[in-house]
Amino acid sequence: MHQEMVPSSLLVSLAHSYEEDPRQFVTLPKPVVDSSLARMAVAEMRNQGYLEEQMRGVVRLTFRGYEFYKS
């Protein structure tokens, strides 16, 4: 995986889930949860207010994150 692709691919997946139901949390696949690169991306997105993390590997996009995705 390329570093710059991880946040984008996470954002796209979470945006699709948000469009279906903005209240629903998504469980990330085990390879994503186990990846240090993906964990850094999730932490950065959480710190920027783009996603909420219910527990490690269970996340949902925020309205702010969805607006970022659309722009």
Strand content: 15-25%
How many β-strand runs? 3
CATH structural architecture: Orthogonal Bundle
Helix-strand sequence: HEHHEEH
Task: Give the end-to-end Cα distance, rounded to a whole number of Å.
Answer: 24 Å
The residue ranges in which pLDDT falls below 50 over 5 or more consecutive positions are none
Structural class: alpha+beta
Largest beta sheet: what is the strand line-up? 1-3-2
Oligomeric nature of the chains: single chain
CATH fold field value? Arc Repressor Mutant, subunit A
Mean pLDDT: 87
What form results from the Cα inertia axes? globular
Account of the protein in words:
- β2 (51-55) and β3 (58-61) form a beta hairpin.
- It is built from 4 helices and 3 strands, in the order αβααββα.
- It has 71 residues and is an alpha+beta fold.
Observed structural traits:
71 residues; 15% strand; single chain; Arc Repressor Mutant, subunit A; three-stranded antiparallel beta sheet; 3 strands; alpha+beta
Summarize the structure.
By secondary structure, the chain is α+β, with helices and mostly antiparallel strands.
Give the arrangement of secondary structure elements:
Layout: H1 5-20, E1 26-27, H2 30-34, H3 36-47, E2 51-55, E3 58-61, H4 63-70
Antiparallel strand pairs: 1-3, 2-3
